[in-house]
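Students often ask what a holo structure prediction actually looks like on paper. The answer is less mysterious than it sounds. You provide the chain, you provide the ligand, and the output is a string of discrete structure tokens encoding the 3D arrangement of the protein together with cytidine-5'-monophosphate.
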Amino acid sequence: MKPRVPVITVDGPSGVGKGMVTRWLAQKTHWHRLDSGALYRILALAAVHQKIPLDESARVAALAADLKIVFSGETEADEAIHVNGENWTAEVRVETSGELASQIATSPLVRAALLQRQRDFRTAPGLIADGRDMGTVVFTDADLKIFLDASAEARAERRWRQLSAKGTGVKLADLFAEVRLRDTRDRKRLIAPLAAAPDAVVVDTTQMEPVEVLDVVKALLQKRGLLGGQ
Ligand code: C5P
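The corresponding structure tokens follow.
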């Protein structure tokens, strides 16, 4: 029998800080990391490149099998995403790709096409999985399930600060509208809606600084014996 590979899931709405938490977790545990949102973004972009309408779910889902995706880099700054040998990093990360991803993510066919691909990331010594349905659908037997939440206002403002620091002239009101739209689509969809698993630990980060969030996560790891004495 193959040894069981442990998993920690981190779910939550867009802009809540899952990337920061999962990168930190991957660094602490030396486990692999799955950015499931990137898979949805890549599939949506592949459909756009091939001029396949995003509501033609069967055709979009069929594309998944032909995508050779390679993630590299450990920090946000050195992250690289190659698809079929091409560097798609910048395109995957723009706001509009998240919006396209959330459109195809409402389709059961699309979700089914990406399911095994996500589970394939579960290899020794362990996996940190970042997404919307990691704890509720993809890795229901996870060792620790964390659900990060924060008000839409707080998430839009954090994103606005990040983008403004990079010199991107984006309006807070526009970001807030986008966050609200994506939230509604992710929470209200019929299949795998964004929700905390019944056995997830919910952490509301609205009033928290990043370092405080990491302290809470660290305490959870220690409590579950997942930190190996660090
Ligand atoms: O996390 P990220 O912003 O990259 O995700 C983009 C979109 O992909 C989300 O708004 C959501 O609609 C979809 N998604 C999903 N299930 C996941 C990860 C992402 O439906 N596990």
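The CA atoms of residues 136 and 197 lie 5 Å apart.
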